[in-house]
Amino acid sequence: MGNWKFYLVTLSLLCVSNYAYSHFRLKQSVYYNDYWGNWKEMDDTRIQGNYDGFIIYEDHMHPSDYFFSFQIQGYVTPSKKDIKQHYKTNTWWVYDGYVEYYICDLYPTVVDVFKAKGRLLKDWDINKEYENSLSALKASKMMKGQSYTPIGFKKVRKNATIKIAPYKKVPQVYNIYFDGGGYAIDLNNTKFENGRPIQIIKW
């Protein structure tokens, strides 16, 4: 009977621990046509970098194969006084910087990507379905007598306006505007997912 109670308590602790880890994930939202979409959890995703700029990549990929990155230019760590003042007055931090992300022939702008996918492009989006759609696009343009210059699947860099929500200690929510759209990230100040690090951030 004693052993049964021990196993029951151990199992309960494991379940609580698993829930605590799986409950917190990076969240994202996309912006186009003057509206932000709902927050969505990002599964199997990691980030690496600093609070003034980081990369986002898939768990099974090498960090150098990131599908999105941003960097604030000329960033200066704010003082505790400024942080407190921004938080008290609900004033967002606004910076200039740049982003890197993927586009392709079917989705030549980030707004096209957001409308079709509800997220950013990833390498596995180039699949058989994509190739079939691309063939249809080429045929349609040829039938209309239009020219077609392929751009392929490539990573581009664009200027961006990066806004950070007021915070007490460290940044948590980023709204990043570029290429006619916007991408929001909620870090949730969490560093683990199922016991594995998803964020490697230094202040």
Detailed description of the structure:
With 203 residues, the chain is α+β, with helices and mostly antiparallel strands. Helices cover 28% and strands 34% of the residues. It has helices at residues 2-23, 80-89, 110-117, 128-143; strands at residues 27-32, 35-36, 40-41, 45-50, 53-58, 68-72, 93-103, 154-164, 173-178, 181-186, 192-193, 196-197, 199-202. Strands 1, 2, 3, 4, 5, 6, 7, 8, 9, 10 and 13 form an 11-stranded mixed sheet that branches. Strand 4 (45-50) and strand 5 form a beta hairpin. The protein is elongated.
Tags for this entry?
34% strand; 11-stranded mixed sheet; alpha+beta; two-stranded antiparallel ribbon; 203 residues
Structural category: alpha+beta
Gyration radius over CA: 21 Å
Stretches where pLDDT falls below 50 for ≥5 residues? 4-24, 192-198
Order of helices and strands: HEEEEEEHEHHEEEEEE
Taken from the alpha-carbon principal axes, the silhouette is: elongated
Number of strands: 13
Strand content: 25-35%
Helix content: 25-40%
Average predicted confidence as pLDDT = 80
How do you describe this structure in short?
This protein is of the alpha+beta class. 28% of the residues lie in helices and 34% in strands. The chain has four helices and 13 strands.
